[in-house]
């Protein structure tokens, strides 16, 4: 005790605030705070990722019963975090850009260097495989691939995933496959799980009930290894995952009607789409963040800026809301863009 004041023996973890501020929720809260409270219009959340708010997206009782049974069994009261297991001094991991920033937050938290590879919109958001090879060094541990894509709404072909697997094998790294949207595909490209390439390269698949059963708030994931050659076991990764569990306590084409907004490819999966913002057609709009802040203030419509997922001057739009509300939101976006359009 100094001068009558208690000197506490704890403090917040340094770096955690910075990591959380750049997460999707941080951007979403910033936009919500920019809503004009004098505007009586209903807020249209085209930037959120939780459709369970809407009656049309209520989960099935079968999923609820399964969760109750699992909870009562007391066999599943734990969480596996792959990033924590892979972190070591000097190690780096490849993350997609654009991509959901949850991985970035965990990398920062675990002092794991992140290196971004680009997804190519002109090639249907395929991985820039050539760039991946130039990013790698002896400290590269893994690459993350999200398929079906969030936030791009793409589905990777068998041929492309095979190329990704061959590249990972060449570099000597494992592949972490985020496949939360594996049951939300509806395009012409057949969905192929990354695990089919387990003979080529070790695969860690992250699965989830959150999207298929529309219960994102439950935060329930699972981790599956696809490694017939036993490489993960020999390298100690499996033992590390087991050890971590012992100490862890963590539980569309519709937009093309608006001239200044375009999407490069027809949607095929997930519940999001990436839309390119054409600043040259707009007055008084500096970038994607500025666009979203003004849209929130003027029209009470929330759209996530592309910078939140690593792609500046793009927008991430969700369509997993009530159809009437989606139609209303898009009408307001169109009115906003017309109002800010450059005069011819």
TrEMBL record:
UniProt GO cellular component terms: cytosol
Any one GO molecular-function label of the UniProt entry: L-tyrosine-2-oxoglutarate transaminase activity
Gene3D superfamilies from the UniProt entry: Aspartate Aminotransferase, domain 1, Type I PLP-dependent aspartate aminotransferase-like (Major domain)
InterPro entries: Aminotransferase_I/II_large (IPR004839), PyrdxlP-dep_Trfase (IPR015424), PyrdxlP-dep_Trfase_major (IPR015421), PyrdxlP-dep_Trfase_small (IPR015422)
UniProt protein name: Aminotransferase class I/classII large domain-containing protein
UniProt-listed GO biological process terms: L-tyrosine catabolic process
Domain Aminotransferase class I/classII large: 84-227, 268-332
Pfam families recorded: Aminotran_1_2
């Amino acid at each position: 005790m100094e001068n009558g004041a208690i000197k506490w023996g704890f403090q917040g973890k340094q770096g955690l605030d910075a990591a959380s501020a750049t997460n999707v929720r941080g951007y979403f809260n910033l936009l919500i705070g920019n809503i004009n409270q004098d505007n009586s219009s209903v807020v249209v959340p085209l930037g959120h990722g939780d459709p369970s708010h809407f009656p049309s997206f209520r989960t099935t009782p079968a999923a609820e019963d399964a969760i109750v049974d699992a909870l009562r069994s007391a066999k599943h009261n734990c969480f596996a975090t792959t990033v924590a297991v892979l972190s070591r001094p000097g190690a780096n991991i490849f993350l997609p850009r654009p991509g959901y920033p949850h991985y970035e937050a965990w990398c920062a938290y675990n002092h794991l260097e992140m290196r971004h590879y680009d997804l190519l919109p002109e090639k249907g958001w395929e991985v820039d495989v050539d760039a991946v090879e130039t990013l790698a060094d002896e400290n590269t541990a893994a690459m993350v691939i999200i398929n079906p894509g969030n936030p791009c709404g793409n589905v990777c072909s068998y041929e492309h995933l095979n190329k990704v697997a061959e590249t990972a094998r060449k570099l000597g790294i494992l592949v972490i496959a985020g496949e939360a949207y594996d049951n939300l595909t509806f395009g012409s490209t057949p969905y192929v799980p990354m695990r089919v390439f387990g003979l080529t390269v070790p695969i860690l698949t992250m699965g989830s009930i959150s999207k298929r059963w529309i219960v994102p708030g439950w935060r329930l994931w699972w981790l599956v290894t696809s490694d017939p050659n036993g490489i993960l076991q020999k390298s100690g990764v499996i033992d590390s995952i087991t050890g971590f569990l012992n100490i862890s306590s963590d539980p569309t084409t519709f937009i093309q009607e608006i001239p200044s907004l375009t999407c490069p490819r027809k949607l095929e999966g997930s519940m999001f789409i990436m839309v390119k913002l054409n600043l040259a057609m707009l007055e008084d709009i500096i970038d994607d963040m500025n666009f979203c802040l003004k849209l929130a203030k003027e029209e009470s419509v929330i759209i996530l800026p592309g910078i939140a997922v690593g792609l500046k001057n793009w927008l991430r739009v969700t369509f997993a809301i009530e159809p009437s509300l989606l139609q209303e939101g898009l009408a307001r976006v169109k009115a906003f863009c017309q109002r800010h359009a450059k005069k011819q």
